[in-house]
Amino acid sequence: MNRLRLEGKVAVVTGVASGMGKAIAEMFAEEGAGVVGCDYNADAGFDTMDAISKAGGTGIFVPCNLRRREDIVAVREKTLERFGKVTTLVNAAGIVVLNTFLEQTDADMQSLFETNYRGAVWMMREFLPFLVESGKSSVTNIASISVYQPESFAYYYGSFKSAIAMLTRNLAREYSRQGVRLNVICPGPCDTGMTPESCRMDGGDPEAVKRLVDSVLCGRVGTGKDIAYCATYLASDEAEWVTASQFTIDGGASFAGGDHFVPV
């Protein structure tokens, strides 16, 4: 009898309303984890977790604006109230602003910082003590190939993704010996809710879509599920000797080089 890969795990996943976060939450539940999903978009987040429950999975949804510390505290409280422990944290939520450098405003920079960097920091601050307590735990932060391949138009986005990637690996030095592995996934261009409208596979501009697909060696853009496979591995006991690492899941886009998305 095959044991589910995440049986006995309790995972907190941000950004479950769509895209990578949704795919990760669904795959975690399929593999036996109890899932606490959170997102700013409450309606879509509830839909994700409701579908997981109807499919036989176990999970709850907690509305959360990562720019509000009290919301993150509430996620931690409801997680422990429902499951009594936490073994896995995945920071998948994020936003992007694509524009020329001089047209990106201070407000753009602030919103990217608060959501993509500080929100992940606050989540780790709330959950790390309980991850240590559980033992054999993990944190996976979703960054981007812009961590090591500068892309035009994604200036602050790439900067804060680079920051969270470095912080993750630094924290691994402190927490891995305490039973918490920390790793980074760097996705390439994926067709998610963050994809510019002109580049979306369904309804995008044909020329922009072709240029995007041609920039990926594997001949297609990624999906949330492509990233979820890696996240599931990192959350499982199969990865118990894996920490302080960056996983590039990009279909060869970073090797091909060039800009993948353009402003709309």
Describe the overall structure.
With 264 residues, this protein is an alpha/beta fold. It folds into two domains: 10-187 and 223-247, Rossmann fold; 197-221, no CATH class. The protein is 44% helix and 15% strand. It has a seven-stranded parallel sheet, with helices on both faces. The longest helix has 29 residues, at 106-134. The termini are far apart. 48% of the residues are buried.
Condensed summary:
The chain is of the alpha/beta class and 264 residues long. It is built from eight helices and seven strands; from the N terminus they run βαβαβαβαβαβααβα.
Mind telling me which CATH architecture of the largest domain this is? 3-Layer(aba) Sandwich
Determine the number of helices (DSSP H or I, runs of at least 4 residues).
Answer: 8
The major pleated sheet works out as: 7 strands, parallel
| Main sheet: strand order | 3-2-1-4-5-6-7
Q: What fraction of the residues are assigned to beta strands by DSSP? A: 5-15%
How does the helix and strand content classify structurally?
Answer: alpha/beta
User: What number of domains?
Assistant: 2
CATH class of the largest domain: Alpha Beta
> Can you give the helix content as a percent range?
40-55%
Poorly predicted sequence stretches spanning 5 or more consecutive residues:
none
Describe this protein with a few key phrases.
8 helices; 264 residues; single chain; 44% helix; 15% strand; 7 strands; seven-stranded parallel β-sheet; Rossmann fold; alpha/beta
